[in-house]
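Hi there, hope your week has been kind to you so far. No rush at all, and the record is pasted right below.
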Amino acid sequence: MNEIKAVCIEKLSKPRQDMEKSNAMWNKRAREFRKLSSSAGDGGVFDLFKARAELKGRSVIDVGCGAGRYLKRLLDEGALAEGIEPSVEMAREARDFVSQSGYDGAAAPIYNVAFQDFAPGKKYDYVFISNSPVISYYENYPRIIDLARRGIFISSWLKIKDLFLEKIAAGLGRAPHTHGGCDIVYFMNLLLADGYYPDFWTNVSHREERVDPENFYLRYASWLYGPEYGERDLEGVKKEIAKYVGDDKKVAVSSTNVMGLLYLDLLKQPAKKECNH
């Protein structure tokens, strides 16, 4: 187990994330994520979490809360929700989304700070993390564990196969860099090595539908040109996507995605050995 732990630590021992560069990209994509906050499905992510957590009256910190999608759902379940979101524009959209959903502006405090700089001085009943890069850095591993009293929930893409993206990438002569990787698996194995017993699931979803092309402009620009994409890059993406727009003003999308989901119930863990964080 020590050898597995060493491999996982190595995989997650990366230079600190460039928050200035990251926030610049997420600031540009904030309105896009606000639209997603109002959309219906999330692949069952939140339902899986609430089926295992006692949310009513419990404190929950949503790490990387984005435009507030899950903050609103946590409040709907009666949780005492708080969020961490380093992007100024994302945090602004999240506050507005929560307010527009009928909650008082102070119902879900949002801390505009990077997770590695977050110092709340308290624990939360639950830590909720959905598709956030915080799990990709080993320095955050002990901080995530130390933040929770009752449970930790993580969802993260393992693989994304987007056929429409591949068409656009081929047309532009670019190699796409999507979300998806083994970091949640490394995180799970670190837990096992430290004497914890998390539950782990994979969820495979297929998508074939016709979608408004505006949903892809900013996302594909960032996946094809990186977080520092410029207006020229964005215009190139728009022109390439326009080649596939039908009479209904939409594009055909086909994708197969694999998500990893992890839940650690801290109340049901056996006596743990001393962990070398």
